[in-house]
Amino acid sequence: MMKYPELNPNENAYPNEQGAFGLTKRELFAAMAMQGLLSNPELSAEFEAYASDSVKFADALIDGLNK
């Protein structure tokens, strides 16, 4: 099995030649997790809970990818 280099969550999600602009990988993963959470109309919680859970999901994904 091929081993990939460790994922740095603070790197730019979409690097370009001009430099690092935009979302980090961690921010992108958290935004994607939040989108999934908010797409379920049966869930109801405070906005802060969605934000906190989204970051936890993003960190768990990064940890899993780095194993």
Describe the structure.
The chain is mainly α. It has a domain at 25-65. Helices cover 49% and strands 0% of the residues. Helix 1 (25-38) packs across helix 2. It is globular, with a radius of gyration of 14 Å. The mean pLDDT is 85.
Share of helical residues: 40-55%
Order of helices and strands: HH
Q: What gap, in angstroms, lies between the N and C termini?
A: 13 Å
Tell me the overall shape. Answer: globular
Percent of sequence in beta strands: under 5%
The total count of strands amounts to: 0
Structural class: mainly alpha
**Rg calculated over all Cα atoms:** 14 Å
Low-confidence stretches: none
Main pleated sheet:
none
Average pLDDT confidence is 85
Number of contiguous helices:
2
Outline of the structure:
The protein has 67 residues and is mostly helical. Helix content is 49%, strand content 0%. The chain has a domain at 25-65.
